[in-house]
Amino acid sequence: MKxxxxxxxxxxxxxxxxxxxxxxxxxFIARGAHLEALQENGLQIQTPNETLSFCPxxxxxxxxxxxxxDVIFVCVKGYSLDEATTFIKTVADKNTVVIxxxxxxxxxxxxxxxxxxILVTDGCIYVAAHVSAPGHVVLSGNILRxxxxxxxxxEYRPVLETIRDDLQTGGAIVVLSDDIRRDAMMKYSYIxxxxxxxxxxxxxxxxxQNPGECRDxxxxxxxxxxxxxxxxGIQLTEDPVKKNLAIIDTLVPEMMTSMQRDLKAGKxxxxxxxxxxxxxxxxxxxxxxPLYEKICSELRERRVTDGKACS
Length: 311
Fold this sequence. Notes:
The chain is an alpha/beta fold.
C-alpha cells in the first residue's frame, strides 16, 4: 500500500504519523520551508506525552511526485481543493482511493464530480494539531480519531478495511462509517461552531471552556446545526451539544483553530466554508438559525468575509 498525503500541515502530519508508526510507505506533498525541513531533517511531532522523530521521510511537491498511490489523503484547506483535485487527476488510477479530510461538509461529493471513475469517500478527523515551525508539528491533545466511508453502499471496497487497520496499528482511533453523511455532519457541527464562536468572541478554547456567554453561544450553534441536519434528512444519533462540549473541554485552554491563526496572520482562511456555508445551507433547506445569522451578519459588518479582517 502506497499512501500519498496531500498537505503536510497538522491534519496531514497526524495521519502520516500513524501510518509511519505502522511502518507504511508514506509520501507527503508539501511546499516551501516546511518541505525543505521535511526533506532535510524529517518530521518532528510533539504530543502531550512524547516527542516523535521520523527521519527520513518522503516529501516532495506536486510537480515532482512520481508514481501511482493506492490511497490519497487530501488534507488541504478548502481554498486549495481545486489544485489538489487537478493533481489527483494526473497520479490516480481506477484503483486509487481518495479520502478527503477537510473541515468543510460535503467535500467528497464535490470532488467526486470532478474525479469520475475514482472512488472518493467522505471523511473527517478529530485532532488538535498545527505546524509550529518548518518540519515541526504540535499535537495539543490526545485525540486522533479518523472517520471515513462511502456515501453509497455499492461503492464499498475491502481496501477501506485495510486502510482502517493500518491507521489503527499506528495508534489512531478509526471509524469506518456506515453513515458518513451523519458522521461528517457531527464533526462539522463541532468545527463550525468552534470557529464561529472563536472568531466572533476572539477567544481560544479556554474562552469556550469557561461558563458564560461564549460557552452558551457554542452550545447554541451546535443545537442549530442539529436543526439544519434534520432539515437535510440527516439523523444525528448523538447530541452535538453534549458531545462537542465534552470535546472542547479536553483541549488545552490556549488552543486556537487553524482558521483563527490564519485570520490573525492576515492569511486566506476557510471562513466561507466553515461559517458562511451554514447560513447558505439554512436558506437552501428553509430553516432559521438565529445565532449563525447574527454571527454572519456581524462578521460582514467587520468585513471578515474573505479571510482577512479589514479595519
